[in-house]
Design a protein that fits this description.
This protein is α+β, with helices and mostly antiparallel strands. The chain is 43% helix and 29% strand. Strand 1 and strand 2 form a beta hairpin.
């Protein structure tokens, strides 16, 4: 599992083996179940066997979007005050859950 720190909030990202996969036909036929399942784990929707879309919990999406905005802002600032105090290791932490 990968943990992204977004200020006081934390976003847990799934590893590939933790994802659920649904074909487009399965997702359409059981859409309510797919929506419920995405609260527990990210879901990959496939079309013709190829990944085409991702469904994730809305709160996770918001936190991930904020994190990406912060990283992008730090990138644009290059050497601003905030960038001087934050290192990439402070933003992304690999956790061994084996």
């Amino acid at each position: 599992m990968v943990i992204l720190y977004n200020g006081p909030e934390v976003v847990l990202l799934s590893k590939l083996h933790e994802l659920s996969f649904y074909s487009l036909a399965e997702a359409k036929a059981h859409f309510s179940k797919v929506v419920d399942d995405c609260e527990k784990a990210d879901i990959i929707i496939t079309k013709n066997g190829l990944p085409k879309a991702v469904m994730m919990d809305y709160d996770k999406y918001v936190l991930l979007s904020r994190f990406l905005e912060r990283v992008y802002d730090l990138y644009l600032m290059d050497a601003g005050d905030e960038a001087m105090d934050v290192q990439i290791k402070d933003l992304i932490v690999q956790v061994d859950d084996d």
